[in-house]
Amino acid sequence: MPWNRAIFIARLNIVSFSKTLAGALNADQRLMVEKLLIEEERIFGQLQADDAERDLMELLTLLAEWAAELFDNCGAQGFIHTSREFKAVIERVPVGMALGSHTGLCSTKNMAMVRFMPLDMPSYDLENISSWDFRKTLPANGPWPDVQAVRGTPVRPGVEAQFSDGEGGVISVRMATEPVVDGTATVIAVMISIYELSVLGQELVAQEIRWLFHQERGRKFDRLRGR
């Protein structure tokens, strides 16, 4: 990720306001600085979430390309038995990430994805499909992002949805997808990520996504050089 001046300035402002609060202030001054700090932290979190989302979308694409290579090299059945390294990378992604088949079945997913995809891809999981609400972001009866990817259309960045957690809570998430295509441009699988922007705004989460993105980009270059 290139240097982001806005994030740098927001971080400096947070440090400055925090130091000011540690000094001697009267009640009105303290209240004013606290409000400025809260607003700057909000801005910083949003900027960082936007950057992390861009990295996550790049990572999603890289993983789809890698999955396509694995399928081409060993076929769908062989992929299941030879993809330990691929699965290990997916597990390291700090937000929901999964690989689904072109029929909507889930091939592999990380722990962060379990609550969103307990069984298969959302559009194909009839037991849990009612947990999802895209009415604010997609046309009535319009295909969800997972179905769009099965049909060959990537959805990046993710489309916002309301997700019911089954315990009375509703959270705002985004669902992004990338089709996995073979040498004939046929969709053979789908990479899918489900994430909360508020989680992407957390510094450790953003750093881990950034590191994984650069790692997988380097791995891609290594594979290309090895051909």
In short:
With 227 residues, the protein is of the alpha+beta class.
Descriptive account of the structure:
- This protein has one domain: PAS domain (Beta-Lactamase), CATH 3.30.450.20.
- The protein has a six-stranded antiparallel sheet.
- It has six helices and six strands; from the N terminus they run αααβββαβββαα.
- Helix 1 (5-21) crosses helix 2 (27-82) and helix 2 runs parallel beside helix 6 (203-225).
- The mean pLDDT is 85.
- The chain is an alpha+beta fold and 227 residues long.
- The longest helix has 56 residues, at 27-82.
- Helix content is 51%, strand content 19%.
Secondary-structure map:
Elements: H1 5-21, H2 27-82, H3 84-92, E1 96-101, E2 106-109, E3 132-133, H4 145-150, E4 155-164, E5 170-181, E6 187-195, H5 197-200, H6 203-225
Antiparallel strand pairs: 1-2, 1-6, 3-4, 4-5, 5-6
Helix pairs in contact: 1-2, 2-3, 2-6
